[in-house]
Amino acid sequence: MPLLLSCPRCTREVSVAAHAGDGSVECSVHGVVAPLARPHQVNFDGLREVSDLVPELPIYLPWPMSPRWSIADFGCVAGRSSATFSVIVGSTIPDGRVEVSVISEDPGVGLGARCAGLAGVDPGKQAEGDVNGERPATYVRIDSRAVPLWIIKNIDPDADPFATTAFAGEADGRWLWVIVRPASAALLMRDDWLLTDIAGIAQDALGMPFGEERASW
User: Fold this and answer.
1) What share of the chain is helix, strand, coil (3-state, %, to 5)?
2) Residue 100, beta-bridge partner list
3) How far is CA 175 from each of CA 52, 69, 73, 198, rounded to the nearest angstrom?
């Protein structure tokens, strides 16, 4: 089944670019783009559809997941600059419904900024806190590595400060984003969080709990 396509930098659908002649697609605001591709159904077959488009990229997910949490969404951008994302959904007593999105992307894609509700495309110097002497806000573990992440501040004065907390850093030459909504649920982030590449794991080895809710962004 064809994947659902949209602009990676906004929520608009894409259409075949009128004058490209090569099947390129375009957004009415952002022009010709490599589209964000999502499966019609969030299940193991849909995960395989997505991972087959970008076999060289990891699809990171916090794993193992806490009880009663589920995988809500995933997808990719396959182009000269590529990206993958996954979303898990659960709840906590103080925060209610909580959504955690993990994005791995090449510079210039803009998917992480879209998810976080930020202007611009990349986190830039904010995700290189060591340059300014700022300590990382937290770490996540990928394989045996501890990857530092910094909080990315939204400079838009009209942005809702309670909507999200965005963390970003660099892993394997790509931006790594972990975006938590609502912002108060950022207290879930711990230095022992393990991000696992689920793209190459067999279904029976993982026992993935897929859910019915899609990402809200």
Assistant:
1) 15, 35, 50
2) 88, 180
3) 21, 25, 19, 18
Residues 6+ apart with CB under 8 A from 117: 154, 156, 159, 160, 163, 164, 217
Residue 114 burial by Cβ neighbours in a 10 Å radius (0-12, 13-18, 19+): buried
Structure tokens at 52: 């087959």
Q: How far apart are CA 161 and CA 168, in angstroms?
A: 17
Model pTM score = 0.91
What gap in Å lies between CA 46 and CA 175, rounded to an integer?
A: 24
Task: State the burial class of residue 80 (Cβ atoms within 10 Å of its Cβ: 0-12, 13-18, 19+).
Answer: exposed
From the number of C-beta atoms within 10 Å of its C-beta (0-12, 13-18, 19+), residue 2 rates as exposed
Instruction: Give the pLDDT confidence of 77-128 residue by residue, as tens digits.
Output: 998 999 999 999 999 998 999 999 999 999 999 999 999 988 888 987 776 6
Distance between CA atoms of 134 and 22, rounded to whole angstroms?
46
- Report how far apart, in Å, the C-alpha atoms of 208 and of each of 66, 160, 203 are: 12, 33, 7
Domains of the chain, by residue range, sit at 41-206
Specify which residues 71 forms β-bridges with. 88, 210
